């Protein structure tokens, strides 16, 4: 797996589809039973939120592939990276499982919160940047800045960091920091989703498969990964219940009853968005390379993803698999 910022894909894949039918909503002994309306709203919202970063991330990946800006350069996943990815994801998942078994869950999540706060601020800022460029008027004084770190003397000077940004980027960073503080202090599900959507969109935009065969290797390897860790062990469920980080999208099933203070969530891991998303983005770039008006491969794969995700949610809900777990905040 290629190590790429700002999206921790190996960590993201550690969480798959997880549904919450919350216990702890009313008291320790009472179990919350979601209404059909609440369940449908939660599942429908998760599907809609999953489609957003894939669609817009794929569009942005086309522009990203042509960019000469170092900060927007994509990370290319090769066949070797794809083959190693399930192994690295498994080590990451099992490592987290051992950490939660050995160390205090509170301190681990505190450390992870600080780490994802920094990543989330950068990811959300990068996501908002094109939007801010359209919002600000042409008369806005947009000053250019450069962050440059070098190593060595004049003749042997080597660039370590060379990042160019402007005033609009600073405004995006400020807004993202406000969201980050909100998430850090309250762990509110809306703040979690803003960070999660930003991670997913950046992942689809900046992670590029070099060809279709690499995508098939990646998806095939992760199929085996899912079968083993989801159906063969309780590792993924344990990590999903313990891991407090914005690497999942959540939506409350009790929103109609409790409003924004709802606490019984249906969840969808970012791995179920980013991994198929980078394959769909590859097919869009292939469509563009054909220089035709049609986007046959992109729309076909996009519709197939919608069908697959909907079918997965239906099966998980119908058969009440072990991944269906409570999450009260």
From TrEMBL:
Principal localisation: endoplasmic reticulum
GO molecular function, one term: aspartic endopeptidase activity, intramembrane cleaving
Listed transmembrane segments: 40-62, 82-100, 106-124, 191-209, 216-240, 265-284, 296-319
Protein topology in the membrane: Multi-pass membrane protein
Protein family per UniProt: Belongs to the peptidase A22B family.
Protein name as annotated: Histocompatibility (minor) 13
Location(s), subcellular: Endoplasmic reticulum membrane; Membrane
GO annotation (BP), single: signal peptide processing
Top-level lineage group: Eukaryota
Cellular-component GO terms for this entry: cytoplasmic side of endoplasmic reticulum membrane; lumenal side of endoplasmic reticulum membrane
Keyword Hydrolase: yes
Keywords carried by this UniProt record: Endoplasmic reticulum, Hydrolase, Membrane, Transmembrane, Transmembrane helix
Alphabetized Pfam families for the sequence: Peptidase_A22B
Signal peptide: none
């Amino acid at each position: 797996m290629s190590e790429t910022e700002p999206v921790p894909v190996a960590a993201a894949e550690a969480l798959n589809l997880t549904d919450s039918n919350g216990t702890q909503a009313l008291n320790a002994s009472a179990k919350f039973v979601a209404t059909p309306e609440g369940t449908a709203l939660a599942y429908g919202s998760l599907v809609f939120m999953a489609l957003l970063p894939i669609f817009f991330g794929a569009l942005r990946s086309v522009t990203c592939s042509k960019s000469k800006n170092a900060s927007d350069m994509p990370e290319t996943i090769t066949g070797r990276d794809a083959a190693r990815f399930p192994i690295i994801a498994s080590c990451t998942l099992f490592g987290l499982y051992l950490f939660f078994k050995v160390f205090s869950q509170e301190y681990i999540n505190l450390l992870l919160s600080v780490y994802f706060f920094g990543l989330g601020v950068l990811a959300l800022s990068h996501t908002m940047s094109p939007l801010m460029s359209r919002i600000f008027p042409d008369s806005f004084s947009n000053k250019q800045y450069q962050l440059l770190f070098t190593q060595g003397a004049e003749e042997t000077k080597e660039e370590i960091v060379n990042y160019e940004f402007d005033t609009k980027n600073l405004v995006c960073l400020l807004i993202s920091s406000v969201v980050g503080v909100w998430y850090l202090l309250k762990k509110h599900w809306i703040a979690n989703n803003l960070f999660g959507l930003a991670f997913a969109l950046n992942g689809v935009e900046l992670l590029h498969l070099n060809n279709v065969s690499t995508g098939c290797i990646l998806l095939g390897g992760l199929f085996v990964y899912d079968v083993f860790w989801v159906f063969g062990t309780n590792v993924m469920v344990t990590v999903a219940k313990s891991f407090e980080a914005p690497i999942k999208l959540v939506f409350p099933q009790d929103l109609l009853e409790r409003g924004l203070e709802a606490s019984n969530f249906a969840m969808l891991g970012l791995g179920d968005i980013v991994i198929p998303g980078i394959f769909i983005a590859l097919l869009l770039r292939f469509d563009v390379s054909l220089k035709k008006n049609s986007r046959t491969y992109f729309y076909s794969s996009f519709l197939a993803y919608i069908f697959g995700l909907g079918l997965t949610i239906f099966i998980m809900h119908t058969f009440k698999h072990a991944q269906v777990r409570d999450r009260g905040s």
